[in-house]
């Protein structure tokens, strides 16, 4: 694939204790191109509107569109690179929608907002956050909306 990505991972790792409702994080960017869209689709979602411009032009999408799962995979990469959660971005469930198609040439960026932070009652070393992520293209259009629950570890005690 010839897609390109930029990352914005800087600073220290984030623990549960560092996160709070209303906190926002914006990731780096990732550009999708037609060859990358077709390669992903050929392997994981081989439908004509993801594989062939002519067929796509006569489809619901009116042109080549990336698979929603491709957009989700790019969003995951953006979150892993741009949201420095200690221990990784460990998903525990999600609700996902694609309000607009992702097209060749789109430059995607994830805008994450922490909605809830809940320390675990049974596991004092971790908790769960609920996060809303809007994946936007270069025009600011939301191409994916995802609400996820993520396991996040607490800062280890020194001693």
TrEMBL record:
Pfam families xrefs: MaoC_dehydratas (PF01575)
Listed InterPro entries: HotDog_dom_sf (IPR029069), MaoC-like_dom (IPR002539), MCH/BMMD (IPR052342)
Domain MaoC-like: 37-121
Source species, domain of life: Bacteria
PANTHER family documented for this protein: BETA-METHYLMALYL-COA DEHYDRATASE (PTHR43664:SF1), MONOAMINE OXIDASE-RELATED (PTHR43664)
Protein name (record): Acyl dehydratase
Organism: Nitrospirillum amazonense
Phylogenetic placement of the source organism: Bacteria, Pseudomonadati, Pseudomonadota, Alphaproteobacteria, Rhodospirillales
């Amino acid at each position: 694939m010839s897609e390109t990505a930029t990352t914005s991972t800087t600073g220290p790792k984030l623990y549960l204790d560092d996160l709070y409702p209303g906190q926002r994080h914006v990731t780096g960017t990732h550009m999708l191109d037609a060859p990358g869209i077709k390669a992903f689709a050929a392997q994981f979602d081989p439908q004509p509107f993801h594989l062939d411009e002519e067929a796509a032009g006569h489809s619901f999408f009116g042109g080549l569109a990336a698979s929603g799962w491709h957009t989700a995979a790019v969003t995951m990469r953006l979150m892993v690179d741009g949201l420095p959660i200690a221990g990784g971005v460990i998903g525990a469930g999600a609700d996902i929608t694609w309000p607009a198609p992702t097209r060749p040439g789109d430059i995607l960026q994830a805008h994450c907002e922490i909605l809830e932070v809940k320390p675990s009652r049974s596991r004092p070393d971790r908790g769960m956050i609920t996060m809303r992520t809007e994946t936007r293209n270069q025009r600011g259009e939301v191409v994916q909306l995802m609400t996820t629950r993520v396991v996040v570890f607490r800062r280890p005690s020194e001693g």
